[in-house]
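All the exercises in this workshop are built on plain-text protein records. A record pairs a protein's sequence with a compact description of its fold. Read left to right, the backbone structure tokens trace the chain's path through space. Once this layout is familiar, the rest of the handout is easier to follow. Here is such a record, shown just as it appears in the course material:
>
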Amino acid sequence: MLESEVTDRGQTTLPEEVLEAMSLGEGGRIRYIITDGAIRMVAVKPVARLFGALQYDGPPMTEEEMERAVSEGAAGTSTD
């Protein structure tokens, strides 16, 4: 079990094992989720890490076409 001390300013140093498990380095960000008295820490990942996560093999789409496709998908409708 890992633990760290809280300073009088409410700061703490995360143990190296925690930083490694969360893939965090200097400048990394952490989100705190509080539920039922328990706190969960989640590493905040930059949006840039999502690049290439989705595949699309069709022709390039305009911004309007993308917005329409997202709206139709959210509404469960399609014009196809």
Observations:
- The two ends are 55 Å apart (CA to CA).
- The beta strands are 29-35, 38-44.
- DSSP finds two helices and two strands in the chain.
